[in-house]
Amino acid sequence: MARIRQWTLHEIEQFRKLHPVDHPIEAEQAKVHRERAAFAELRRKAARRVRRCLNELTDPGEDLVAQRYEAIATRELRNAAAHRRRLAGLAGVELHPGNAPRDQAPRGQVGGAFPL
Q1: Fewer CB atoms inside 10 A, N or C side of the chain?
Q2: Residues 94, 98: Cα–Cα separation, whole Å
Q3: Spatial separation of the C-alpha atoms in residues 97 and 24, rounded to whole Å
Q4: How many Å apart are CA 5 and CA 28, to the nearest integer?
Q5: b/e string for 50-64 if b means 16 or more Cβ within 10 A?
Q6: Where is the segment annotated Disordered (predicted)?
Q7: Is the dihedral of CA 79, 80, 85, 90 positive or negative?
Q8: What does the domain layout of the chain look like in residue ranges?
Q9: How far is it, in rounded angstroms, from Cα 95 to Cα 110?
């Protein structure tokens, strides 16, 4: 065990000037108690934060859901582009019936692959 150093008279006077309390020993014990309680609480908070971060990083369910949503969004965007191309093609066919594919009926007739 470490040896306790004795305070000099000057150190005691300085302590009393800086800490003007009636019971300095009890005040110091209270400070130690508060600091230890604060340390324990901070330690618990840090442990909770680490657990939460680890859960967020290693939880495959959330990552898979996010990846699935991203894949669905990409597919929807690709589908929209395909529909825009198809509409542009249909508009071109309607404006220029001579450029229509063979299986499409001419303008004004019913039938074909893309009836209008």
Answers
A1: N
A2: 9
A3: 101
A4: 17
A5: eeeeeeeeeeeeeee
A6: 93-116
A7: positive
A8: 24-58, 62-98
A9: 17
φ/ψ region of 111 (left if φ > 0, alpha if ψ in -120 to 50, else beta) reads left
* Tens digits of residue pLDDT in 28-74: 888 888 888 888 888 878 878 877 777 777 554 555 656 677 777 77
Residue type, 44: R
For residue 77, what are its two tokens? Answer: 């965007």
Q: Are 105 and 115 contacting, i.e. CB atoms less than 8 angstroms apart?
A: yes
Distance CA 68, CA 110 (A): 41
Spatial separation of the C-alpha atoms in residues 88 and 103, rounded to whole Å: 18
- What integer pLDDT is reported at residue 102 of this predicted model? 53
